């Protein structure tokens, strides 16, 4: 590639950055994609692959009447590269789309690095450059780039803490205690997509008490949240959608039983009854040798994780292939700084995408990168930019992050609550109402894309 002819810089080789770079390059732009790993590690990533999944291997529901499923259908219609690769590397996960994370990241890296319109540069971009740029540096943005964005915005960053779940070896799970099943008998009960560890009430309460009293990893100074004046905040700020399991346990004895350990839709074949609580494990690689503990993000010390998590029935001899960790995630105050096109508020050639904008969830990150890549290319080619209607899930996410009130702005995942109300007679059934939202969204998306070229992976 002729490096003097670069037309667009993309900062960050995660989900949003890779999707943005590919979409822009497919539209004829010459793109330089900066990724600081492995030269500068993040503390959360383990490989040098682009688009490495850190927290979970699940991209959420695939069902068309679920918010995550609707968002997938929207970006399928828009020609997402990363969603296509996710489907190529999928592992069993019931009604959800989960991937072999190593195969997924490797295949994304191969496709991006092989694209003739993309140059991948393995070094840190320490500042926001002049000229057409997409910042998709993610929640683990480097300190130097973070300071550059802070100086440019004139506003303090917001911080929250995210956490990743442990992974265990499949052959260390005691299947005399655990059982395979998907909720509500989706799939064969004897060959379900999840491994379930059932708990009695006494086992559950003892486990909750152990979580509450277990030792936690102390946060480093650079991970602590700061107020606008630079004084350390008294308490850490956690994102509600990805709370450490021990924090949930502190909120009440039954918080976990009504949260990630809810037993609904599952019957223990040994007793023929629903357990008091269930820990679910989801396949993490295509070979089926690794399973992650669903919803078990944690900041317990590694020794305490081994001790406490082995209290879970069926995991008494579990071999931990990865322990959980907690790390700082960073996002900008998008209601002040971004437009629904994902452009910077006072600079037409600068875009932000991914989790740094406050859009949460893997598919949301991919979707925002797709839109930023489209709009950056459209702007440079003198074409109209795309603002998706808020009746679509992606349009609603972009509207939320750019219009939310300052008092309660938090990262947001796809959900039907951010969509405008349906017109006409009220639909009482939840499933029927969700289907109506989905039908309206896809119809409105088709109208919005009329005359817009869609590039298929």
Written account of the structure:
The structure is a single chain. The protein has 457 residues and is an alpha+beta fold. The chain has 12 helices and 17 strands. About 4% of the residues have low confidence. It is globular, with a radius of gyration of 22 Å. It is 30% helix and 16% strand. The strands form 4 sheets. Strands 6-2-1-7-17-16 form a 6-stranded mixed beta sheet. It has a 6-stranded antiparallel beta sheet with strand order 10-11-12-13-9-14. The protein has a 3-stranded antiparallel beta sheet with strand order 3-5-4. The protein has 2 domains: 272 residues, 3-Layer(bba) Sandwich (FAD/NAD(P)-binding domain), CATH 3.50.50; 166 residues, Elongation Factor Tu (Ef-tu), domain 3 (Beta Barrel), CATH 2.40.30.260.
Q: What percentage of the residues does DSSP assign to strands (E)? A: 15-25%
Q: Would you identify the CATH H-level superfamily of the largest domain? A: FAD/NAD(P)-binding domain
The CATH topology assignment of the largest domain is FAD/NAD(P)-binding domain
Structural class: alpha+beta
CATH architecture of the largest domain: 3-Layer(bba) Sandwich
Uncertain regions spanning at least 5 consecutive residues: 221-236
Q: What's the helical proportion of residues? A: 25-40%
Order of helices and strands: EHEEHHEEHEEHEEEEHHEEHEEHEEHHH
Counted by DSSP, the helix tally is 12
Envelope shape? globular
Radius of gyration: 22 Å
Largest beta sheet: strand ordering = 6-2-1-7-17-16
- Mean of residue pLDDT? 87
CATH C-level class of the largest domain:
Alpha Beta
Largest sheet: 6 strands, mixed
